[in-house]
Structures are given as structure tokens and as C-alpha cells.
Amino acid sequence: MIDLARALRKDISRRSFIKYSATLAAMLGLSDAFVPKIAAAVEGMANGKQPVIWLHGAECTGCTVSFANSHHPGVAELVLDTLSLQYHETLMAASGHVAEKALEEAMTRFKGKYILVVEGAIPVKDDGIYCRIGGKTFKSMVEEAATNAAYVVAVGTCASFGGIPAADPNPTQCKGVADVIGGTVVNIPGCPAHPDWIVGTIVSILLFNKVPELDKHGRPMPFFGKQIHENCPRRGGYEQGRFVKKFGEELPDIEGCMGAKGCRGPITYADCPHRLWNAGTNFCIAASAPCAGCVEPSFPKLPLYEPIEEVAKFIEESEASQDEGSISTFAASLGGAVAGAAAGAGAVYFAGEKAREKEGVE
Q1: Fewest CB within a 10 Å sphere: which of 117, 134, 334, 362?
Q2: How confident is the model at residue 327 (pLDDT cuts 50, 70, 90)?
Q3: Which positions are catalytic?
């Protein structure tokens, strides 16, 4: 068992702890009445009541790094350092035969009770010989550990759907966890997965003793139920047919849509526009980069910077309408209150950013 808290004691106020529990309740779409139960669930994690086995396969360990970079470092450290984390190759002090023995003992001792977290795709070609750990194939390790796990959670797009290791031509035939072991697997995709998605999902499992509501791709609905395009701060540019055609370009009177540069927001489902990344600082589109659709099964979709079919058609129609000096019927149908609200939200967001940049310069 890993208990770094004995060596690195961390303190957090009760007020901050309850505030974070309230944040988790909001993330999961629960009322304030659930805050005490959520606090108890997180404390249960901290008291070592919920064993976790975390395996790594074909990946970059970015999801572990993301989890450690939580917006609430005090609570993240509380959960990470005192969680009953029985096996984690990156965080545990043990190595070699000692580490593998710890894994075997944990699976026996906590049979039917532990949460299995898998980070990384599973190579299956030639029975998985292209990813070995301690002399065993990663494929066999996941299959064995999943057999007696209470819940199986795939963290990151690699573990969820194959991700980058499974990109064409996929020489080692990498697959996501569910495609290898079958059954119910909670997928928390993302490249990397947002720390809130990981913590919120685990707390939901502990709180209700069951997996949260999942979409057709096995993703928790509280985090992956909304289309990014619906809440995009550049939505106003899309509605008006104003597109950024090259990186670094700024349109004179509006923040242009990134659709022409391959933005996959219209076909991607995640709460990135509200969640934000790097301690609530920003997210891809607001940072003038197109959404790569990293939480979708199709990621990575190449080429990255060409418009998706739906947007390409709209761009063509918008340009034709502008040449004719009129607004297309298609674009007009997307107007109204939603377009106005989106454009207004985008204008307010970017106006604030511009003001902060100006203050920083002065």
C-alpha cells in the first residue's frame, strides 16, 4: 500500500474540504443535500477504505500528471497520498519483483473490492507481446486484474478507445479496455483526461455504489453530455460565417470560428468550455486552437487541420452567400436567441481577455 502522507503530511481546512465537496456535487448534477455524503465518500478514500489498482500500458502517463495537477491541489494530494493505492508504477516506491508481488497480493487480499484503473491502450497483436511489464503482457495483466475488480475505469483516450497508440496504421493492434475485456467499463477519455472527471467519477462510484449514467461510448454523462459547439465562445463567428483561415489571424470585428482549421467542436461532447484547464485558466478553442476532439473514439482523426464535412459544407455555403451579398437560409436558421447568446458570451469572454492582456502590458 502507498501511504505518502506518513512522509509528507498535508493539511487542509474543513471549510475548504466541504467547499470542494460542494463543487463535486455540482459537477455530478446533485443538490446541496448530497454534500455531506460526498465529503464522507472522499474521506473514505482518504482513510484507505477503497483499494485502487492502477495499471499503465501503451501511453505517456499524461493522465496521471493531469490528475496530480488538480485545480484543488490540497484535496488532490489528500486523495492521492492517502488513497489505498495498492499499485501504481509511477507513484509507488517499490520496483521490480517487489512491485509485482505487491500487485499479486493486492488482487488476492482485496478480491472483488478494488477499483481497477487502466491508463493506456492494450496491444493485442501476437497475443500482446509488444507491451510487457514484469515479464507479463499488459493484455494478460488487465484481463487478470479485471476478473476480480469491483469496477473498471479506463482513464484517458488511449485506455478508453485506443487513442494515439491505435492510430493508423496501428502496428501493434492497440485497443481500448472495453474492446479487450468486455463488460461494463467506465471510460474517462481525454488527452489527457481532466482531473475533475477522474475525481468526480470515482466519488460518484463510492457515493452510489454503482457506475454513473453513461453515454453510448461508456462516458459519464455529467461530464460528456454536452456538445462543445453549443457553448463555444467563438460560436458567434460560426453563426455569421466568419472563419479563421490561418493560425494567428484575427478578424477585425469578431472572434472568428476555428472550423476552417479543423475544429471538431460540433461533433465532440465534453464540458471543456465550462470546466477549463490548468487550474481553470483556459481551454483549446479560447486559446485560439481548434478542438481536436480528443475525447471521441475517432481521435486522432487525420488530417488534423482540415474542416469536418459538416463545417466544410457550411463554409462553402456561407462564402457563396457573402459573394451574393446575402445571408444563406442555412445560416439564418441557426440564428435567433441561441446565436445571440453565444455571440454575446464570446464577446464578453474575449473582451475580458483583451482587457487583461492590455493591463499586463501597461
Answers
A1: 362
A2: very low
A3: 60, 63, 158, 191, 229, 232, 257, 263, 272, 284, 291, 294
